[in-house]
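Quick start: read one record
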Amino acid sequence: MGGAQRAFKANWTKPGMLSIIIPTYNEAANIRRLIEELAVATAGLQSEVIVVDDNSQDGTAALAESCKAMPVRVVRRAGKMGLASAVVDGAKQAHGDIMVVIDADLSHPPSKVPELVTALNNADIAVGSRYAAGGGITNWPATRRITSKGATLIARTIFGLPVRDPVSGFFAVRRDLFLRTPVDVQGYKILLNLLVKNPAAKVAEVPFVFTNRKVGKSKLGVKEITNYVKDVRKLLSR
């Protein structure tokens, strides 16, 4: 990471522990680097990493536990139970007042975590936004771009959300707000659940550039897309 990326320092006026939740499934190739980069990005903040692992067969959990760059706790689950429930289980184990949710595949830049944290000085939820001014996507095939744009358009249109990236997987939230929000979605867009069920929450967007994973296999497939459609229907029926 270059000096420019490390230059931003969190200006958190309501200090407390920061808990960084990382759902994982077969991310051995990325997890150590991610934790090391998070340690650099959050230097000066009291922070912890909680890895919620869905019984990875590649040793992801053990690798995470071996990292000494910052405090790490691993929640081992019996099988592949899904991202939404992984974040919920991580939140229940978190010690922090603030939670950041980040993907394990290095598509979300750890250097942006301090900006998300600082945004919560004036917000309840801070969204890492690919579609806000200054954000973007690199190295995505056309099919992924279309799928993402479609999911975003559906969420914004159906629920009338002003947030430009309501289906982002990279966000910060006050832990008490998260824990008091019922999470009954089964797909991977847990942020949408938070936004729809907390219409009065103040939301800030922090632009970032999403970089497609370089190592490992994407978890997005037909099942995840189907679950997203089911989640939208479920949120509409509430």
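Residues 1-8 have pLDDT under 50 and may be disordered.
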